Amino acid sequence: MRRRLPGLLLVLAGVLPAFSATTASDGWSEGRYLEHVRHLASPLMQGRAAGSPELEQAAEYIAGEFRQMGLRPPPSAGYYQVFAIAVNTELGPDNHLVWSRRGERHELAIRRDFLPLTLSGKGRVVGRVVFAGYGISAREYGYDDYAPIDVRNRIVLLLRHEPQEFDRDSIFAGKTYTEHAQLYTKVLNAGEHGARAVLLVNDTRQHGGLAGNFTEFSPYPGPAPAGVPAFHISAAVARQWFALAGKDFDTVQERINRGLEPASFAWPEEFRVSLRSSVQSRRRKVRNVVAWLPGRTAEYVILGAHYDHIGHGEQFSLAPNSAGTVHPGADDNASGVAGLIELARWFARRPPMRRGLLFLAFSAEEEGLLGSIHYVRHPVLPLKRAVAMINLDMIGRIRNRRVYVGGGHTGTTLLRALQDHLDDTTLRIDLSESAGYGSSDHTAFTAHEVPVLFFFSGLHGDYHRPGDTWDKIRAREAVELLSYIAAVVTELAESSDRPGFVHPPLQ
């Protein structure tokens, strides 16, 4: 279950003697932490791309560490939560989109007027069309584009991205998108509301430069087919359709973004769309890794980190000329997984607390938070018993001793827990004003009203590039951060006060 690099500890002793020799009296080990990072970011792991054999080896390594320290999965579950992704996706031979009105028939051209989404399901659909804004149902915001409209057995047209994303004071604003902006989430949500097919159009009032662009159709690993056909249509086609409904495409977008209120509507009965999708792909199984440390009650705290990266960088590399070169992903996110393992080890040696701890290593985060989205839709323990989710994503390159912590405002007691232990560390804990809605796995939990904390050491020039290597990890600072996180988690697990989820106010 565990594959070690030959002579690893001797190498560490020669290259970084302080790391291999330093083991704090409370059980934290810089050498052990760095050993996990180096193994997960080694050439053997080939960048841990979703769907690759190397990612499965990483899953076995993590599960083996949990097993070795005596942690077991939750009752009626295993160490692995399996789900499917798509690989080798192709357009297929027969994709078409036609609209008709009062006897007129207009066939649209693929790549000019429309393009199937990579996650599109197969099949033919004919029916009426409804517009459902951004296609967002966000309980945590009290916002739902579907509230004013019934989309059952309809073809639903949705805007890309999120409303008010460039408004500094908006609940949706931020440097990264929430789970609700993910295409996979939009299509799944439409299907759950009964839609038979999904059409996507660029939100041109916020992204004017995307007016003529389609989302890239990619053969690389991505979400499994969503169960309904899903196409991206051009803004020019959408403008024409809106006019036929007596609406102005730009005005409707502005109305949603100005008032943060849904502007959903249905086209008249005589307007119909016929579409066929023949997108083809192969399914490949990937795994979240799960371990459980019971508490004295049924409540629990979640600690999570994603263990996948971008392989050879063909799809997500920020160094396009290096496509085909291994992107090791030492900081992103072997550093967070190493922290997850060492936190599990630290808590496993201590008596049970009031609340249990659930350790989750997520797969396919880079493809759109697929592992965490799958988990919250299929939790192995009831989410209503989760009092908080702690996410570790890129904690290995702390500079100037500063660590960014988001999400403190998502729970009533989270800031207090963070502040109570500031004197226990010399790190500069930056309690960001971010509400905790950023593009990492914790966002899947805020969408289900679980308070979150997001620990992050900041972006750097090696992000999503081949230079994200193990030797640049600052293990001493990372381990000091783990000690601080352990104190915060202990308070959340032992406190008689449960953090209540804080709903951001609509602007």
Can you walk me through this structure?
The protein has 507 residues and is α/β, with parallel strands linked by helices. The protein folds into two domains: 282 residues, Aminopeptidase, CATH 3.40.630; 187 residues, Glucose Oxidase, domain 1. It has twelve helices and 21 strands. Strands 11-1-15-17-16-18-21-19-20 form a nine-stranded mixed beta sheet, sandwiched between helices. Strands 4-12-10-9-6-13 form a six-stranded mixed beta sheet. α3 packs across α8, α3 packs across α12 and α10 crosses α12. The chain is globular. The N and C termini lie far apart (51 Å). 51% of the residues are buried. The N terminus is likely disordered.
Q: Specify Rg, calculated over alpha carbons.
A: 24 Å
Q: Helical element count?
A: 12
| Structural domain tally | 2
Overall pLDDT, averaged?
Answer: 90
- The proportion of residues forming helix, as a percent range, comes to 25-40%
Major sheet strand order = 11-1-15-17-16-18-21-19-20
Number of strands: 21
